[in-house]
Design brief:
Layout lengths: L14 E2 L6 E2 L2 E4 L14 E6 L4 E7 L4 E6 L4 E6 L3 E6 L26 E6 L5 E5 L4 E7 L4 E6 L1 E2 L2 E2 L6 E3 L5 E5 L19 E5 L5 E5 L5 E6 L5 E6 L6 E8 L2 E9 L2 H6 L7 E3 L5 E5 L2 E5 L5 E6 L4 E6 L5 E6 L2 E6 L1
Antiparallel strand pairs: 1-4, 2-4, 3-26, 4-29, 5-6, 6-7, 7-8, 9-10, 10-11, 11-12, 13-14, 15-16, 16-17, 17-18, 19-20, 20-21, 21-22, 23-24, 24-25, 25-26, 27-28, 28-29
């Protein structure tokens, strides 16, 4: 069965905005002159599509000349490109029923439903790798025409993960991913939670899985520095928002330290630290309080792309000409 592309006129609750209907949101806050190296003066935040429950995990795919992104509550992955606009790429994307899960609407379940896919990435072969909240696994889309999945990893020491959230490949093929409890109906208090921690894991190309961090409350976005020496982990705990940094070692990580934390910023703006990406210059683009923060490797905050909405994640296109952002109910972008 081939993937179905749903005509936009048939999607009554989603909107694709053409050039003639261009809408913008927010503004760019420039704290230091170096911000102009990354976002040109006058650049606007475009709303490309809207109507999602919580958009997440954008990834640019050259073979499609498009960006893919998750709608976590909708259990779908969407595709957006300049020519065709918005279409459903994958349904379901995160929950197919293979893992135990509290049924929606049961007396023990919370009102939220975060069963869909979250973080997305391409492996070195260009295959789509997904964090599947509902299935509590990291999986590969092995057949783009028939929607066939293959589990890469689904358990640690015989126990189901909580809900793999975001992931990144190192150049040597190691896959790092975070595992907070957001996909469980009752979070840390869910009876189906099998691991007593919310961890960060490493999976080697040979299939060796190791727990490398187990003392974070809400590990979320994750990235590796361009020199492959530093692992960044965003902590989306509203009681202690921050980005951690670790030295990467052959056996895991060491030298845990706070890379960035701004209590005043967190009090003034909406949103937690979530997804983050590394620019070719080494500069960190991280979602956080207020939108997307631009931070140098030394921890200097250059400015913020103020999206006005809670922003989950971001991704560059192939040439770093645009930054695509999943902004609550919107898919947005800005010219770099």
């Amino acid at each position: 069965m081939k993937l179905k592309i749903i005509p936009l006129f048939a999607i009554c609750f989603f909107t694709y905005l053409s050039g003639q209907q261009k809408r913008t949101i927010g503004y760019v806050e420039r704290l230091l002159p170096e911000m102009n190296r990354f976002v040109a003066p006058g650049a606007e935040i475009e709303i490309l599509a809207e109507g999602f429950g919580w958009s997440e995990g954008p990834v640019w795919v050259d073979r499609l000349d498009a960006v893919l992104f998750s709608d976590v509550p909708g259990n779908k992955i969407y595709q957006w490109d300049e020519k065709n606009g918005l279409s459903v790429f994958l349904n379901p994307s995160g929950y197919t029923g293979i893992a135990p899960r509290e049924k929606k609407g049961s007396k023990n379940a919370m009102n939220r439903d975060e069963s869909g896919s979250n973080g997305l990435i391409l492996d070195k072969k260009g295959q789509l790798i997904m964090c599947m909240h509902g299935d509590r696994r990291v999986a590969r889309l092995t057949d783009w025409e028939k929607n066939n999945f293959t589990t890469i990893v689904g358990k640690y020491q015989g126990k189901y993960f909580n809900s793999p959230n975001d992931l990144v490949y190192a150049k040597n093929g190691d896959l790092y991913f975070t595992d907070p409890p957001y996909g469980l109906k009752k979070g840390d208090d869910d009876a189906l939670k099998e691991l007593p921690f919310n961890g960060v894991f490493k999976l080697t190309p040979s299939g060796e899985l190791s727990l490398i961090i187990d003392d974070l409350t809400r590990p979320n976005g994750i990235a590796v520095s361009n020199d492959q020496k530093t692992l960044y982990v965003a902590i989306s705990d509203p009681k202690n928002r921050r980005i951690m940094a670790y030295d990467i070692t052959p056996n895991g990580v060491e030298n845990a330290r706070v890379f960035f934390n701004d209590d005043a910023l967190a009090k003034e703006s909406r949103g937690n630290f979530d997804g983050l990406k590394i620019h070719p210059s080494g500069t960190i683009f991280t979602t956080g309080p207020g939108g997307v923060l631009i931070i140098t490797p030394e921890g200097k905050h250059l400015g913020t792309i103020k999206t006005q909405e809670k922003t989950a994640n971001c991704a560059f296109d192939a040439k770093q000409e645009y930054l695509y952002m999943t902004t609550h109910m919107y898919l947005t972008r800005i010219k770099l």
